[in-house]
Amino acid sequence: MSGAIVRVTIRGRVQGVGYRYWLEQQARGLEGWVRNRRDGSVEALFAGPADAVSAMIASCRRGPGSARVDAVDEELAGLDALNVRRAGERFSVLPTI
């Protein structure tokens, strides 16, 4: 795959506000996954053209209207990070870890 693969951790009031569902809708055209973490953050992985991944990360900084995003940390990830997805899905909403 050519492009970028980036893992993000979103902190703030991002659980219980529809953030994962919103993010799944926003990520159309990208590959990856999203899940809640027990520490109250949301973790996601985006893979695709670098400009589309950058635009998705910018969207994460805003979030849905009901969320309050305090921070978005990002790090480059490897192709193997996509293996967390459910079989046959381009973008998965995963269980909380």
Structure explained in plain terms:
The chain has helices at residues 19-26, 50-62; strands at residues 4-13, 31-36, 42-48, 68-76, 91-93. The protein is of the alpha+beta class. A five-stranded mixed sheet has the order 4-1-3-2-5, covered by helices on one side. A hairpin with a 5-residue loop joins strand 2 (31-36) and strand 3. The protein is globular, with a radius of gyration of 12 Å. The N and C termini lie far apart (27 Å).
Order of helices and strands: EHEEHEE
- Unreliable spans are none
Residue share in β-strands: 35-45%
Distance between the termini: 27 Å
- Taking strands numbered 1, 2, ... along the chain, how are they ordered across the largest sheet? 4-1-3-2-5
Strand pairing plus helix content: what structural class? alpha+beta
Question: What number is the mean pLDDT?
Answer: 95
**Total strand count, please?**
5
Cα Rg:
12 Å
Q: What is the helix fraction of residues, given as a range? A: 10-25%
Described by strand count, sense and barrel closure, the largest sheet is: 5 strands, mixed
Alpha plus pi helix count: 2
Based on CA inertia axes, which overall geometry fits? globular
Protein topology:
Blueprint: E1 4-13, H1 19-26, E2 31-36, E3 42-48, H2 50-62, E4 68-76, E5 91-93
Parallel strand pairs: 2-5
Antiparallel strand pairs: 1-3, 1-4, 2-3
Short description:
The protein has helices spanning 19-26, 50-62, and strands at 4-13, 31-36, 42-48, 68-76, 91-93. By secondary structure, it is of the alpha+beta class. Strand 2 (31-36) and strand 3 (42-48) form a beta hairpin.
